[in-house]
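Q: Please design a sequence for this.
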């Protein structure tokens, strides 16, 4: 790799520098240091960035020379970063000069400045301030403050404050001085920076910031300190802050560490504070006075508070507090938000008394209540080790209930609370001459309106009216021919009965039982396409845990997939991975040649789960669709085998190396040593120079250092 970096073409040199940085081997320092003198600025940039990952003192001298003499901004930034991490004190004077201004003794890219209008010194200045903090250069504090107060310079308050907080006493004292500024903005940023520091010198000024007269300053200091040290004793006082927003946020941030204070906060005068306390408390005390106060809030409190109280009483209150929640949950006269809280509380209580109210709520007019009830029943059924159980049985009954075919009970998909529905206005009394026909547009109103005497006088119109010109008549005729816009429905109409069945099919996917799979398979032939889609999706989820499916489910899936539309077909193929019927494998293999790429991809995934990866899947390594190719490669890697490494290496070079990085990650799991040897053989062969770039990138991915953030990149699609 070092030889390519020194003698290869420019593209290969850049890739080699990047690869050496990702691999992180000490042997790469020398060739990377030499590359800092490369004639190509891109190579120098990649080399400098690679050295910033290696952090080796052998490169310090050359990095210093590049900082001063190399006009490339990216090289300077990487050099500053590396020298600071090396704790090279020799760079401090130069960094101070950079902070003060665009020093003439340092090379800058003048052409870039005149071409784009952007002064690269501004980027380097920020990096210099951060590096001075890393070096803990107390002598540079005045320079940082002067740059921050420069009205003609860039706004670097945020970066400067964060850097000062990382420094010793000099930086902390400077931040403390900003707490005396008149500007709440400066005080807020200084307070947040002080709170982020664990320096002992920051203790006293931070205490002042927590008592600042500005709510925003106190809030900033509190949030920053709570993120670093949520158990700090100084935070407790903010639970009694004069501002309710601060108190509520304090409860959310560190109330759980001060549980003895939460019962008192339930009596706070601010609704937001009470709601926050209800969410953080583990268990409501068996206090008759407190419970009675909560019952009052449940009856007459604001909807948001009443809903939170209902949820807390069910989940955290003593058993006697559950008495009226069941009745409240099904009380159609109550606001939907409160009933929703009652349902949530009953569901979280885990008691048997919660199941029947949840079952009753499945048929409620409010869609939000129906969905919450069914979701809660699914959670209860999942947590109950016994099967069958009442919650699961209720959902199965809802799924199987075909209902009344004449049912026309349709409700909006989003049901609004009764308190938000405007009352109907009284119809106006029609006049004697009113023919009941109203204009439907502004043009119609103009054409149809006969002005009365008052209107004529007010507008100073002639008594005989205004004579229209031929042009006016033509325009009005054209206006009459404009077709009106179609009105779109505000909300989709949903049949309540169908809605219940569809959502039951959706949530049943969380209950991993063979009987549930059979019930879902039974509705795959239903005429309701949305119900079929929900059932197929749930079967695919259940198939991850229940494999193989019962025979009746496999038969239903096989029958449904052959007549399904594309979207439903994908879900059915995904579920077929868990079917064990004779011929299922042949059916899935047939879909490997389907014209739809999504279908081919799902078929590969299904065969991979079934362990049926053969030549048909290997052929898809050359498919025209990239997702199909990658799915096939993942399946081959999972299957393993004597020649799997060779196949994936060849796949890495196909399609101009489009999948080289993904192939390398697969090879890392298989046999990184063997794969690296195969890629190195390519680099040793001058006749294959055209594909060297692919080999270099693959080697970097194969041997990436564990300290490189790219080593923890996003997983492959099938992982």
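A: Design:
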């Amino acid at each position: 790799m070092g030889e390519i970096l020194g003698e290869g073409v420019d593209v290969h040199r850049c890739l080699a520098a990047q690869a050496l940085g990702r691999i992180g081997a000490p042997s790469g320092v020398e060739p990377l240091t030499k590359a800092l003198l490369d004639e190509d600025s891109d190579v120098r940039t990649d080399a400098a960035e690679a050295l910033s990952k290696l952090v080796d003192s052998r490169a310090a001298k050359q990095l210093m020379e590049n900082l001063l003499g190399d006009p490339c901004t990216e090289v300077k930034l990487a050099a500053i970063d590396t020298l600071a991490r090396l704790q090279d004190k020799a760079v401090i004077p130069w960094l101070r000069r950079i902070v003060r201004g665009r020093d003439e003794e340092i090379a800058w890219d003048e052409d870039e400045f005149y071409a784009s209008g952007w002064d690269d010194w501004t980027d380097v200045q920020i990096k210099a301030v951060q590096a001075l903090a890393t070096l803990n250069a107390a002598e540079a504090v005045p320079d940082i403050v002067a740059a921050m107060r420069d009205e003609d310079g860039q706004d670097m308050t945020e970066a400067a404050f964060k850097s000062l907080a990382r420094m010793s006493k000099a930086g902390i004292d400077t931040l403390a001085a900003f707490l005396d500024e008149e500007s709440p903005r400066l005080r807020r940023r200084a307070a947040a920076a002080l709170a982020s520091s664990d320096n002992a010198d920051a203790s006293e000024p931070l205490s002042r910031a927590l008592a600042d007269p500005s709510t925003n300053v106190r809030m900033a200091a509190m949030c920053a300190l709570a993120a670093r040290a949520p158990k700090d004793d100084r935070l407790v006082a903010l639970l009694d802050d004069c501002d309710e927003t601060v108190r509520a946020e304090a409860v959310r941030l560190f109330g759980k560490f001060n549980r003895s204070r939460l019962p008192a906060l339930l009596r706070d005068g601010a609704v937001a504070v009470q709601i926050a306390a209800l969410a953080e408390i583990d268990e409501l005390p068996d206090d008759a006075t407190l419970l009675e106060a909560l019952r009052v809030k449940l009856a007459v409190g604001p909807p948001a508070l009443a809903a939170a109280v209902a949820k807390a009483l069910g989940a955290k209150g003593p058993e006697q507090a559950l008495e009226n929640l069941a009745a409240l949950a099904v009380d159609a006269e109550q606001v939907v938000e409160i009933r929703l809280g009652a349902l949530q509380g009953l569901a979280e209580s885990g008691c048997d008394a919660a199941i029947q109210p949840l079952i009753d709520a499945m048929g409620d007019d409010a869609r939000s209540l129906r969905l919450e009830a069914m979701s809660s029943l699914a959670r209860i059924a999942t947590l109950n080790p016994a099967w069958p159980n009442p919650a699961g049985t209720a959902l199965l009954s809802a799924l199987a209930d075909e209902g009344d075919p004449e049912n026309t009970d349709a409700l909006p998909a989003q049901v609004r609370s009764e308190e938000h529905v405007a009352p109907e206005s009284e119809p106006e009394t029609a006049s004697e001459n009113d023919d009941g026909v109203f204009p439907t547009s502004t043009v119609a109103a103009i054409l149809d309106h006969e002005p009365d005497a008052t209107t004529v006088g007010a507008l100073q119109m002639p008594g005989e009216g205004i004579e229209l010109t031929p042009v006016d008549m033509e325009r009005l005729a054209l206006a009459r021919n404009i077709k009106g816009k179609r009105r779109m429905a505000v909300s989709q109409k949903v049949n309540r009965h169908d809605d219940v069945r569809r959502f039951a099919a959706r949530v049943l996917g969380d209950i991993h039982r063979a009987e549930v799979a059979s019930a879902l398979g039974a509705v795959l032939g239903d005429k309701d396409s949305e119900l079929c889609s929900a059932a197929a999706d749930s079967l695919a989820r259940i198939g991850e845990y229940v494999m193989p499916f019962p025979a009746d489910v496999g038969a239903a899936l096989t029958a449904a997939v052959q007549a399904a539309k594309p979207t439903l077909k994908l879900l059915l193929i995904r579920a077929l991975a868990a079917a064990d019927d004779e011929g299922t494998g042949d059916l899935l293999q047939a879909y490997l040649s389907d014209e739809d790429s999504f279908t081919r991809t799902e078929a590969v995934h299904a065969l991979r789960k079934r362990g049926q990866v053969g030549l048909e899947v290997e052929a898809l390594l050359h498919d025209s669709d990239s997702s199909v190719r990658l799915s096939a490669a993942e399946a081959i890697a999972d299957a393993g085998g004597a020649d799997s490494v060779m196949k994936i290496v060849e796949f890495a070079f196909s399609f101009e190396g489009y999948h080289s990085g993904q192939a390398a990650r697969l090879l890392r799991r298989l046999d990184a040593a063997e794969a690296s040897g195969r890629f190195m053989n390519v680099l040793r062969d001058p006749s294959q120079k055209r594909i060297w770039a692919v080999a270099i990138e693959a080697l970097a991915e194969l041997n990436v250092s564990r300290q490189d953030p790219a080593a923890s990149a996003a997983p492959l699609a099938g992982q």
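Q: Thanks. Anything notable?
A: Residues 640-719 form one domain. The radius of gyration is 36 Å.
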